[in-house]
Write the structure tokens for this entry.
Amino acid sequence: MIYEFHPPNQKPAPYTTKMKTISLKGAYEILERYTTAVVIDDSVLVYPRLSELKDSEENEFLYLSWEDEGLEYSLKFSEGKNQSVKVSGSSMFLNDDDAETDADHTQLTILDATPIEYLMLNSTSVSSVSSVVNPI
């Protein structure tokens, strides 16, 4: 049996596999308000470090680091590469500074059963949600 979470007094959204796009400010607010840990690309648990948004393309607003089998890894995310952020379910897709193309995104899954679309309803940046875009 499959159970779905629906916030009180809200109708469930129809299931969709299409991505939505939100602004960097909206994605940042979700990370700041609802995230203590994320899973990267379905396999690595990390604790993100956020820095303030500064409206500067070079500003690194998110830093992720972890260790695996004695090796250290890190990802940095700057504002310039992430002005719009794709979301689907409880995942968002960001471009790290070392990504060669916009298609080389990193999937961050928020450790919360609530889809990002519902989290945005409680966000002050609700107006930052755009229409559904073509699936990746």
